[in-house]
User: What shape does this take?
Amino acid sequence: MNHWWVIVNPAAGRPGEVLARVERALAAHGIHADVQKSESPDHLNEIVAAGKEEGVRCFAGVGGDGTAHLLLNALMAQDWETPPGLAILPAGSGSDFVRTFGLPRTIEGAVPHLASPDWYTADILEVVGAFGRVYSLNAVEAGVGAAAVGAASRMPRWVGERRYAVAFWVTLPRFGWDEVDVTVDDRKRIAGRAIAVVVANGQFFGGGMNIAPRASVADGQADVQVFAGPRRKAFSVMPRVIRGMHLTHKNVQRLVGSTIAVDVPDHWPIEADGEFIGRGPISVTVVPAAIEFKI
Assistant: This one.
């Protein structure tokens, strides 16, 4: 199963460096792989389709969580008899999914794992809304955090992993809390005024925030959190989120389940894996054992 197609996002990392770093690391560890350069999401889909046609089942994305998100969706657009293999060679400003597994967050540190026999059968999230159907590897968020994703994307590259945290505090004063209604497995419900809803598969997001310390990517369930209270409460909640100690805060409500209906205002933004995907109400379903993740 370990013949790899390695797909490089040329926009990740420092311009012009990533492709050379990947090729050097592969050569240094004697790993044979076909290295492809993706020019756009549509091109990425074409690369995955071509690889599948040639019998390839293992694809590694070189970039951040956004690159992994696009690669996952390209994989899920194909029909597989058995789950495909997915690896992440981190080269972007944020690589949160690999933190759940304690994996290296550099190209050079991650490449040797491509030769290992170790795989982890992982769940993913299927997200459906007015925008259509999207798959998420790590986490989906509605509300202020999703609005912060747009602000983070406009920040200079040197801000690095801090960009989401900075963008959150910039966005917070302009984002109003509103009525939300979250139903899990058709029987558990959280309703009321809130500022954000998070549905997590992995444990970390936003550049290392430990949003879901109890989450597992292999239990068939998602970790659902609703953040209530006025804006000023964020000053006590967010420092706890960074350390994964927020679940006992009175303004955080948590449920777990496999099917989640998130009814939020039509104008609320939605993000998945750090990528803006649309606005308004969504449904999220856990797809169990959808991929083999390289660890």
